[in-house]
Specification:
Blueprint lengths: L1 H6 L5 H39 L4 E2 L16 E4 L2 E2 L5 E8 L2 E11 L5 E10 L19 E7 L18 E2 L4 H4 L7 E8 L24 H47 L8
Parallel strand pairs: 1-2, 4-8, 6-9
Antiparallel strand pairs: 2-7, 3-5, 4-5, 5-6, 7-9
Helix pairs in contact: 2-4
Length: about 270
């Protein structure tokens, strides 16, 4: 109780108030990280549940009005690749190596097509003349993830070129549609690697989803530890200052008493 009274005494109350605000803030940061950890776990559970479902056949029926319902869910589409109308997505990197992604139309049975990102190839083969050596028969069916049509920064539409372009910075369906001889679906597919596909096969493909909990738990422990150090350390600091002040007071009293003892006695009156 003595320590608590000292913390809120006239000498220390304003410092105590600042320390309390700091402790509460640090503890709030810890709680915030725990909340983010729970959000990450909920997200991982949602992704895992969708990922483990059977692939959704985009040609079997009407697609959901909200394509976000298929986000993180594998989809499948039977068809034939049209390499004559293939394009490339520029400025793509893999392990810091520049290259392009090959974007190939997949012709569907109903006469429409969907653009498929088949993967990365090195910059040495970025010119259209080199693309055909990466032709490969379409898997039956092509297993992919749905990707939204891309826009420029700030959601600006990609300008439609006056002439057909083979190299693009964005996979924007509306801009690419005028140079294709068939109707494109309003999204494109990110092709996933086949089960028996070699890891280093080109075009290089990989599963883009990595489920981890991140560093939220360690960050939460860190902030809670800082809060404890600040609170406990402040209490010990006040106690130390009080003990120091008490020691100085005792020494001053002892010195005063010592001086009194050393003073010569007053002469006795005769």
């Amino acid at each position: 109780m003595t320590t608590i009274k000292r913390l809120f005494s006239r000498q220390w109350w304003w410092v105590t108030l600042i320390v309390l605000v700091g402790v509460v803030f640090l503890a709030w940061l810890g709680v915030w990280q725990l909340d983010r950890l729970q959000q990450r776990r909920d997200f991982n559970a949602m992704v895992y549940e969708r990922w483990t479902q059977d692939p959704y056949d985009i040609t079997a029926g009407a697609l959901p009005e909200d394509l976000s319902e298929l986000e993180y869910r594998r989809v499948q589409a039977p068809g034939t690749f049209d390499y004559e109308n293939q394009i490339a997505l520029k400025n793509q990197f893999r392990d810091s190596q520049p290259g392009v992604h090959l974007i190939t139309p997949l012709l569907l049975d109903d006469g429409r097509a969907v653009l498929v990102d088949r993967g990365w190839i090195p910059q040495d083969d970025a010119e259209p003349d080199a693309w055909r050596k990466y032709d490969e028969p379409a898997a039956e069916p092509v297993i992919s993830l749905i990707q939204e049509s891309q826009l420029m920064p700030f959601d600006k539409p990609v300008p439609v070129p006056d002439a057909p372009e083979q190299s693009w910075f964005y996979v924007n369906i509306d801009a690419i549609q005028p140079q294709t001889p068939y109707e494109l679906l309003p999204f494109f597919l990110l092709q996933l690697p086949e089960d028996d596909r070699p890891y280093d096969a080109l075009p290089y493909r990989e599963e883009p989803i990595r489920l981890t909990e991140g560093n939220h738990l360690s960050y939460a422990i860190q902030w809670f530890t800082f809060a404890l150090i600040l609170g406990f350390g402040y209490i010990q600091f006040v106690r130390l200052q009080d003990r120091r002040a008490e020691r100085i007071r005792r020494e001053a009293v002892q010195q005063s008493e010592s001086r009194d003892m050393d003073l010569p006695a007053a002469p006795q009156g005769t």
